[in-house]
Each structure stands twice: as structure tokens, then as C-alpha cells.
Design a protein that fits this description.
Number of helices: 3
Structural class: alpha+beta
Order of helices and strands: HHEEEEEEEEEEEEH
Helix content: 25-40%
Strand content: 25-35%
CATH class of one domain: Mainly Beta
Shape: elongated
Length: 275
């Protein structure tokens, strides 16, 4: 208690001064609108500035994260674009090389005047020959698909070996995966033929579409041949036994078309030179 009295006596005047200053400040702030509003305005400005700074800091980190995401996406898109451009360039190069030496085949219509379908070595005769510039080895098709190959040429007629001949061998491919196989006829049913050398690693389904491979100058690529009727893979076998239902109905064959391929003669000569 004595200590408190000593402090009051020693600093009494100063404490009274402080008390009066605080009282005066409170009276001014309470009774005068302008100073109060000025102080509140200043306080609001300070708070607003703080919020703005916090918002900018938050935006900085959000933008940084977004920029990182965009950078990753841009890199991925650039890689995809580069790959796509390479594919386009390769495709254009192949197309340019192909077109520079490619002549689209033309077709000559003909009528079937004689035909067999019950023999192992079936044949049929058409009403075009040397006078129409027909030559041995030309392919023959109709609106259903592959028919056969010219074997003998006379002045006005030609003999065709159909694909339902045990000596016929046509290069084909699966449309779903471009796998190459040979088509042969077993001499049994004119509606069906067999695919050979189809590896057991291939997935074969009923209904798979078979077309010409284009690896021979006789037939352009993509001419319909038939569809898979059934496939059998014996245990331990390396190759399928595949039956193909042929597109062409040889019992109703009346009109065909002979394929003219300007490159065929040159390609056959080159092949013969190798053999």
C-alpha cells in the first residue's frame, strides 16, 4: 500500500495528464463524426489492402498450379502433333511414290458363253479375245467379287480358270488386320474354298471379310473374295483350317469384267527374271 502511495505521489501529475488526454480523445471521437469516420475509413483501407495482398498471394499460387497443368498439356499436345505430323508426312510420301508409278486399272465387260462347276479343273469361256487385246494372266471379276484368271486366248474368245479350280491360288488378306493368306479350292463344293498358311497366333472369327491382297499384278487390292464360314485349330497345330464362303455365285455367273493393268506385263517380266 505504501508503495502504491509513493508511486501516486511521484507520478501523480503524469497520470492525471494521461487520464485527461484519453478522456479528451474519447469525447472528441464520440461527439465528432468526421474524426471517427476518418479513423474507420483508414482502418477499412488497411483491411482492404491486407485482403488484396492475400488475394494476390492466393492467385499467384493458383496461377502457378494452372500454368504447370497447362504446360504439361501443351507438352502432350506437342508430342501428339509431332507424331501426327510424322504420320501425315509418311503417308504423303508413300502416296506420292505410289501415284508416280500407278495407273488405275480399267475393265472390259464380257459375257460367259460356256462353264463347268462340277469338275476339279473347272473353266468357263467368255466372248472376248485377242481382238480386244486380251492376254493370258489377266484377272476376271464380277459385281460380287473375284472370279478367275485368263488361261487361253483366242481371236474372239478366251478361257478362264475360275477360283473353283484346284490349280487356282489367289493371294488374299483379312480386312481386319491385313494378314495375308492364300485361297485354294479343294474340288468339293463350288460355294466354298480354303485359306492356307494362317498362323495359330491369329484370332479368326466367323464372318471375317476376305479380299484380294494386291500383292499380285493380277488383281488390285481390296476386291471381295468371301467371308470366313468356319475355322478349326487342331491341338498342337501351327496353322488354322479355314473355310471361306465365296462371294461369287458360280451357278448364276453370266457377265464378268476383265481387268486391264498397265503395270502387269512389266511386273510379271521382272518376277519371271527372278525365277
Amino acid at each position: 500500500m505504501q508503495n502504491l502511495l509513493k508511486i501516486l505521489l511521484r507520478y501523480g501529475n503524469f497520470l492525471v495528464f494521461i487520464f485527461l488526454e484519453v478522456a479528451a480523445f474519447l469525447l472528441i471521437f464520440r461527439n465528432n463524426v468526421y474524426p471517427r469516420s476518418s479513423i474507420l475509413s483508414t482502418a477499412n483501407q488497411i483491411i482492404a489492402w491486407q485482403n488484396e495482398q492475400l488475394s494476390e498471394i492466393k492467385s499467384y499460387f493458383i496461377l502457378k498450379e494452372q500454368n504447370e497443368v497447362l504446360a504439361t498439356e501443351n507438352a502432350n499436345l506437342r508430342s501428339q502433333l509431332s507424331h501426327l505430323q510424322q504420320c501425315v508426312d509418311d503417308s504423303l510420301m508413300r502416296e506420292t511414290m505410289r501415284m508416280s508409278n500407278f495407273h488405275a486399272p480399267t475393265y472390259l465387260p464380257a459375257k460367259v458363253v460356256q462353264m463347268t462347276t462340277q469338275k476339279n479343273n473347272n473353266f468357263f469361256t467368255i466372248n472376248v479375245g485377242k481382238r480386244e487385246n486380251i492376254h493370258k494372266g489377266q484377272g476376271v471379276i464380277n459385281d460380287e467379287g473375284v472370279v478367275g484368271i485368263i488361261q487361253t486366248v483366242g481371236k474372239k474368245y478366251s478361257v478362264v480358270m475360275p477360283i473353283i479350280n484346284t490349280h487356282a491360288n489367289i493371294s488374299c488378306r483379312f480386312t481386319k488386320n491385313d494378314y495375308i493368306a492364300n485361297l485354294q479350292w479343294d474340288g468339293m463344293d463350288y460355294r466354298f474354298a480354303s485359306l492356307t498358311e494362317v498362323t495359330s497366333h491369329l484370332v479368326v472369327n466367323k464372318g471375317d471379310t476376305i479380299v484380294t491382297s494386291g500383292l499380285s499384278p493380277i488383281f488390285p487390292a481390296g476386291i471381295p473374295v468371301g467371308v470366313v464360314e468356319n475355322s478349326v485349330l487342331q491341338e498342337g497345330a501351327s496353322y488354322y483350317t479355314i473355310t471361306v464362303r465365296l462371294n461369287t455365285n458360280f451357278k448364276r455367273l453370266k457377265y464378268v469384267e476383265v481387268i486391264y493393268n498397265e503395270n502387269q506385263t512389266e511386273l510379271e517380266e521382272l518376277t519371271n527374271d527372278v525365277d
